[in-house]
Write a structure and sequence with these properties.
Blueprint (H helix, E strand, L loop, with lengths): L1 E5 L3 H12 L3 E5 L3 H8 L10 H8 L4 E4 L2 H7 L2 E4 L14 H11 L6 E5 L7 H11 L7 E5 L9 H6 L4 E4 L3 H15 L2 H4 L16 E4 L1 H32 L3 H9 L20 H14 L5 H25 L6 E5 L14 H11 L3 E5 L4 H8 L4 E2 L3 H5 L4 E4 L11 H7 L4 E4 L6 H6 L3 E3 L16 E2 L2 E2 L1
Parallel strand pairs: 1-2, 1-4, 2-3, 4-5, 5-6, 7-8, 9-10, 9-12, 10-11, 12-13, 13-14
Antiparallel strand pairs: 15-16
Helix pairs in contact: 1-3, 5-6, 10-12, 10-13, 12-13, 13-14
This protein binds uridine-5'-diphosphate-glucuronic acid.
The site of uridine-5'-diphosphate-glucuronic acid has 22 residues, from helix 10 and helix 12.
Length: 468
Amino acid sequence: MRIAVVGSGYVGLVAGACFADLGHEVILVDNDQQKLAALKSGAVPIHEKFLPELLESHRGHRLTFSDDLHEAARASQAIFIAVGTPPTDRGDADLSYVESVAREISGAINDYKVIVEKSTVPVYTSEWVRRVILRNGADPDSFDVASNPEFLREGTAVTDFLYPDRVVVGVDSERASSVLRQVYAPMTDGSYYKRENCIPEPDRAVIPPPLIATSTKSAELIKHASNAFLAMKISFVNAVASVCEHVGADVNQVVHGIGTDTRIGRRFLNPGIGYGGSCFPKDIMAFRSVARECGYEFRLLDEVMRINEDQRQRFLRKVHSALWTIRGKKLAVLGLAFKGGTDDIRESPAIGIVQSLLQQGSQIVAYDPAAMDRAREVFGNNIAYSSSPYEAAHHADALLILTEWEEFANLDLDRIREELKYPIVIDGRNLYDPDLMAAEGFTYYSVGRVASHPDGVPTAFVKNGKKA
Ligand code: UGA
């Protein structure tokens, strides 16, 4: 099928490359000339496993790049809108890019087309898109608007796209449903997974994935509710972790105990310094705002956000209780990305924590396997950058782990201890076992677990001078 994908950001680029891998003819449209030139010349703008391979094999054949939305829309049967929906000052989603794309598509409708929202948008967006297209003169029988939310995660985006738990299509007509079923047929009939050169199957893959057809409004809500639920799981476990710190329990044991209940599940229950990224923070605010506009005060979401913010403050308090004063201290920071496996630092809790520590007068030496260039755009020369965790640790007063990179879970602990001025590790991602760290000679703080000390005397998290 001929498909246009409008917007070559994270979702658009991955969706375009994956649709091409499924065998479709894809035109990826963007109005950013620099980005287009880079994509045409073979650049891969985001750090994403398997994306370079997909772009390399389909670029110029089944995947082409263009700035001509009108032509791309005329040539395609399905047009996926994957442009940005950034937050406004009020916390709701700015849909002006979606509107302007809808306006332009209107004039390009020459035969039946399905216009598909792929960006994360509030409920009612599909109705507005339909209205805008009609207002601009399109024949009501010549198009349908559908919603096809995307559930991919950064870092595993290609695999998530091609091996989803489910494909959700929100359609209000049989015609639109049939077009979207054709788009995903290579996945839902299983033929893609039989190909020798398909992207490798991850653990827990559901093959073939089910296609869930709903109304457009339900599909829009499924996306917001999914992200809100996942963020709620993270805030829930972080709140449980805080209770664990106060009573001296171990949150990892608690999570194992509750997560093995299949009704609850173990995934997305990793405590830490809170969720970040370009999706959860923005989408929770947007969902709360949509609910409010519809007359429902979704206070649970306020609490999810409050707990998330509190996690950073709690981590900063741990740094204080480990080091007493911060001014002039040299701190080694491992991890700047909002999570492991990506170079994305948008809304990264690590960035917020480093900013606070700088304000308090510490010197930061940071290392991240992928996000250093992006971090330079934020911090410039206000922090130092190192080429390895060991170089960062050299003569530092303490080591802070802020991102759950696999590399940071496998450090050479002897080397780290030798490099550090004091063997203090404050781990915001629970990558190590407290007893092991104590045995290795570290004073070790983590989240939701009692701090451990080489002399065996547990140092509980100290709050307001009282031992918790
Ligand atoms: C999230 C969703 O997981 C995707 O399903 C969705 O498609 C995407 O948003 C989106 O709306 O586009 P993503 O933002 O890439 O994906 O990252 P996640 O893997 O969900 O992680 C989000 C944040 O939560 C990270 O900061 C991560 O460190 C944190 N996290 C995650 C935890 O603190 N604990 C966990 O157990 C899991």
